[in-house]
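thought: fold this chain, then report.
action: predict
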Amino acid sequence: MKGRILTQKIIYEFKEHLISEERSGATVEKYIRDVKAFAVYVNGAEITKETVINYKKQLQESYAVRSINSMLASINSLFAFLGWHDLKVKSIKLQQQIYCSEEKELTKAEYTRLCRAAKHKHNERLNLILQTICGTGIRVSELQYITVESVKSGEATVSCKAKTRSVFIVKELQKKLLRYAQSHGIKTGCIFITRTGKPISRTNIWREMKNLCLEAEVSPTKVFPHNLRHLFARVFYGIEKDIAKLADILGHSSINTTRIYIISTGTEHRRRMENMRLII
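observation:
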């Protein structure tokens, strides 16, 4: 147990390890952020199993279960890297949700209002970003693969989390993206770029989306890029009813992840129960 001190050198080596495992940039950033938060908590003291358990208890006072489990996964990964396996703690058991909060679910009508608000603000780039994520189901980090070349072919090859998949671009979206690229002098490469020619960052997209909330009359709690991906998933599943196919389209390794994307709201769940008419 002696000598189990979390140093900046260890954190740096852990980061290099994650990169060597070909983890995505977002994943590396997230793991290191969680590890640094734990480092602040221990404040240079020797780490024991009791220390980790107490940290877990402290997290429970401030975060939701899913967030806590995500943070613990980062720390456990660090312990595995260091060979400190006896320090690993169990995640908190969470009953699978059967419906989601309406306060968080973005509806198709709200998505439409966001697009119109972006258009009204003369932010054509954001308008098309919203439609591209929602119309293909890609992650915001995968927008870099929406290039002039991929749009012309109608298919983008996306690499994320050590997996490669094909993403189809429907004809109507093709026309809009090519028209946008032509009008902005973008002849090759990534379509969604800044004035300096670099791919637009998720932070900028997030901020620009939040600026639409007031005019679109949509709660800010619903407005973030990943919710567009969830909307794509729900609409696709509503038509196809094929969760395995949806998992492939979204790039999920596990169908359990995909299930989270397609849970209905409490109101919809209640309506289905009412329609069962089992109360005589």
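thought: worth noting. Residues 34 and 71 are 6 Å apart (CA to CA).
final: tokens above.
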